[in-house]
Amino acid sequence: MSIDRDTAAKVAKLARIKVEEDRLDALAQEFNAVLGFIEQLNEVDVDGVEPMVSVEPMRLKRREDKVTDGGMQDKILSNAPDAREGFFAVPKVVE
Amino acid sequence: MLDLTYETPAPKVIAGAKHDWELVIGMEVHAQVSSKAKLFSGASTQFGAEPNSNVAFVDAAMPGMLPVINEFCVEQAVRTGLGLNAEIHLKSAFDRKNYFYPDLPQGYQISQLYEPIVGEGEILVDMGPGVARLVRVERIHLEQDAGKSIHDMDPNMSFVDLNRTGVALMEIVSRPDIRGPEEAAAYVTKLRQILRYLGTCDGNMQNGNLRADVNVSICRPGQYEKYMETQDFGHLGTRCEIKNMNSMRFIQAAIEYEARRQIKILEEGGEVVQETRLYDPDKNETRSMRSKEEAHDYRYFPCPDLLPLEIEQAWVDDIKASLPELPDAKKARFMGDYGLTEYDASVLTADTTSAAYFEQVVSACEDGKLAANWVINELFGRLKTDEKDIADSPLSPAQLGGIIRLIKSDTISGKIAKDVFEIAYTSGRDPEEIVETEGLKQVTDTGAIEAALDQIIADNPAQVEKAKVNPKLAGWFVGQVMKATGGKANPKAVNQLVAQKLGS
């Protein structure tokens, strides 16, 4: 798989990261270098090997269905650039 | 398990300007899990709370916060899967679906794309007595809900409430087996009924606890059969997805509109573009949601914050053992045990409260058919007038059973029973006591009835002459006797006597 200039621009846009026009070629190249490095892993034969998801065999931790959190509107909103009447206020998003 | 036999309904055919078209519909229903806390946090799921008060730091995506799964939500997904005869995956996993929107603080939704917890199942969608469509369910996965954006509080700003952010949803995905707008609504109705029986989702559509995305495409007759044979989507048309509908009426109207829109495009030589659309009930049309198009590249990847979800077969077996009797089985039992028609059985099993009420009436009067008639025709009608739910019925099953017992023992006539019903309904009094106190006992004493009839015959010689020529006029005499006895005369006895006296 090879990343061209357009793909790099698209990925940047989807990730909402601003990349100047003159940086796109270099970015695409960096992507390709990373992907190329990872490509090497394909040389390893993993047929019949279960994917390892953690170093220690662990079970996904569960919680009980109990309300133990929340009720802190002020804290939730304390980092908001703008908040009104208990809501986050953001620039208009129109559907 | 089911012994209900049914016929498959014909697909809806829409006549275009040039030729006939059929509809092919698949649905994605988002059902909110009936949990107290969210899927990955301990914040409350309660509807209508102060904005941003049911929010934990995990839900607000504060740096370093990690999700911990709510086991009850997992159980409800498994329970739902079992209720739909679906395959349960003992191992499933969570993925991140990435997109940007102000009501999604994480920048991704935790969902299950690659390994959902529930696989293939099925839903029998009732389309009337003896007619039903078996719709295949492709999968059910667990995922987080997003927050809520409010656009009409300020001209320049949108307001965001994260209370719903992170609430557990079950996304129930059907195969494209639904063949018309009415079937689509019936599918949602049946699914909602099953979820409510199971108790896994309250089915409240108004609050958005059950919402549907509808995929609509059209094809020429015969194409769908080819698809069913091969499972190759190439035989079907290009689909459009209508997002987020929470009303049966809108679902039907949106599908109808969308099908006609696509027919027009194809018949004019155009091509349907696969896209996401929004239904506008005010204008009754669907519109393209251009904003969603670009975001469609979700770049899913396994969520690194969560280990795969592994559950044990024994746990699944325990859940299975605790399943309640489901609608199809209950309906079949009502038909078999009480001799009800399919229609009556369907009405009475629409929800568990009605079914339980009916069964209590039956145990009080030991007559399934009469109980069904009285619950459906009298009680439901009366409750509807009062805009009351069966759960708040002022008339108890014991009272209604008592009224039916009085009819069965010939103590009161069916007509008087309606008066007793009304008194019992409004006053809460015991039917037997009402009949006793108000002197409503049926007159079966033929002597008394005969006396009343003789008087009427004596007072109306002209009518008697007419009745001798036209036997239909006998009804007038029956009516007069009923009137004279305050409706308490046994109608059968009156009929017999009138026939005797006028016939001779």
What is the oligomer described by this structure? heterodimer
Main pleated-sheet profile of chain A: 2 strands, antiparallel
* SSE arrangement of chain A, N to C: HHEHEE
- Structural class by sheet pairing and helices of chain B: alpha+beta
Given the C-alpha coordinates, what overall shape of chain B results?
elongated
**End-to-end gap of chain B:** 60 Å
Structural classification of chain A: alpha+beta
What is the averaged pLDDT score of chain A? Answer: 91
| Low-pLDDT residue intervals, each spanning 5 or more residues of chain A | none
InterPro entries (chain B): Asn/Gln-tRNA_amidoTrfase_suB/E, Asn/Gln-tRNA_Trfase_suB/E_cat, Asn/Gln_amidotransferase, Asn/Gln_tRNA_amidoTrase-B-like, GatB, GatB_C_1, GatB_Yqey_C_2, Gln-tRNA_amidoTrfase_suB_CS
Subunit structure (chain B): Heterotrimer of A, B and C subunits.
GO molecular function, one term (chain B): ATP binding
Protein name (chain B): Aspartyl/glutamyl-tRNA(Asn/Gln) amidotransferase subunit B
Helices and strands, with pairings:
The complex is a heterodimer of chains A (95) and B (504).
Chain A: H1 5-14, H2 24-39, E1 62-63, H3 73-77, E2 83-84, E3 87-91
Antiparallel strand pairs in A: 2-3
Chain B: E1 13-15, E2 20-32, E3 69-70, H1 71-83, E4 91-92, E5 95-98, E6 108-111, E7 121-126, E8 132-144, E9 148-150, E10 157-161, E11 168-174, H2 181-198, E12 210-219, H3 223-230, E13 240-245, H4 248-267, E14 276-280, E15 285-288, H5 290-295, E16 301-302, E17 309-310, H6 313-321, H7 327-338, H8 342-348, H9 352-365, H10 368-385, H11 397-408, H12 414-427, H13 431-437, H14 446-459, H15 461-469, H16 474-484, H17 491-503
Parallel strand pairs in B: 13-14
Antiparallel strand pairs in B: 1-2, 2-11, 2-12, 4-17, 5-6, 5-16, 7-8, 8-11, 9-10, 12-13, 14-15
Enzyme class (chain B): ligase
GO molecular function (chain B): ATP binding; glutaminyl-tRNA synthase (glutamine-hydrolyzing) activity
Pfam families (chain B): GatB_N (PF02934), GatB_Yqey (PF02637)
